[in-house]
Amino acid sequence: MKLEKIVEDTAVELLRIAATELPVEYADEMRRLMGETEGEVGKSQLSSILEDVDIARAGSLPMCQDTGVVAFMVKLGDGFPLRSSIKDVLVNATRRATDEIPIRPNAVDMFKGNTGDNVGLRGHVPIIYIDLVPGDKLEITSMPKGGGSSNVANHRMLKPGLGLKGVKQFVVEAVAQAGSLGCPPYFVGVGVGGGEDYVMKLAKEALLKPFKVRSSDPEIAAVEEELLAKLNELGIGAMGLGEGPSVLDVHVEMAARHPASLPVGVVISCWALRHAKAVILSDGSVQVIRGA
After folding, report:
1. Spans of all domains in the chain
2. β partners of residue 74
3. CA-to-CA distance for 276 and 292, rounded, in angstroms?
4. Residues contacting residue 234 through CB under 8 Å, at least 6 positions apart
5. β-pair type (247-254, 186-192)
């Protein structure tokens, strides 16, 4: 089988897994927190979420009708045989996944309307992030993201003098403003530094860091722990009804910044943080990596 076909088939499968199989670690954590939730409303909401997760997994059905804008995060090894053609392969995979899984068409052109296949008419969608890395492997992570949680993302260029205190205050304000709109309990990714565009990419990447694993930098790890506690003190609750967990996890990515700028980005995911990853070797062998 040609390597292009292997990559395309793998990308289709990653979109299927992301849409239909919530990582078990997330479901287990919601199940645990349901046991700690005192109110019946909160318990009911978490129970409904978990029932939905089980039905989706058993039937290979999307866990949410909003299957999101398709995005891929790609790490391309120097020695991997495919290069620029990977973009076309991922576009073809997106079209196939739309029909085969199926997933809802979510690519809307400003002038022509819905394209019907999750591929933008002017490029750009599916969203493809490519990072060049050493080695001869190709790593693909599918990360479709729904409109509800995307709509509550937030960004601010803070005055540098506000420092870390200002960063934390803004993150709390951003999640409080999101309230029930993005289908909590949430996963929160925070980006700090870089620039006005790059900081949002940092925040999105933060969402994909290992679940409940704190940063290897002890200072950033302390910020993550503090934010997780503060955000759950907001009392948003499951589906915004004031009972149960508000936030399941928080991760922070930091970069250097301009002396006159302090960019902060907050990217929020609903309870259905959908992603799946695979590593493809140059000989065509594939390892699909499930889990958070």
Report:
1. 3-19+63-144+274-289, 147-269
2. 130, 140
3. 9
4. 172, 175, 176, 246
5. parallel
Alpha-carbon span 58 to 24, nearest angstrom:
13
Within 10 A of 85 (CB to CB), how many other CB atoms are there? 12
Q: What is the dihedral of CA 143, 204, 4, 285, to 10 degrees?
A: -80
d(CA 221, CA 233): 19
Under CATH, which number does the domain 3-19+63-144+274-289 receive?
3.30.1330
Q: What is the pLDDT of residues 220-270, one digit of tens each?
A: 999 999 999 999 999 999 999 999 999 999 999 999 999 999 999 999 999
Strand order in the sheet with 137-142: 127-133, 71-77, 137-142, 276-281, 286-289
Mean pLDDT of the chain: 97
Supply the DSSP symbol for 121. Answer: B
Answer yes or no: are the C-beta atoms of 267 and 222 closer than 8 Å.
Answer: no
Separation of alpha carbons 90 and 102, rounded Å:
16
E strands in 20-124? 71-77, 108-109, 113-114
CA distance 207 to 252: 8
Instruction: State which amino acid sits at residue 258.
Output: H
Query: Bridge partners of 45?
Result: none
* Alpha-carbon radius of gyration of the chain: 19
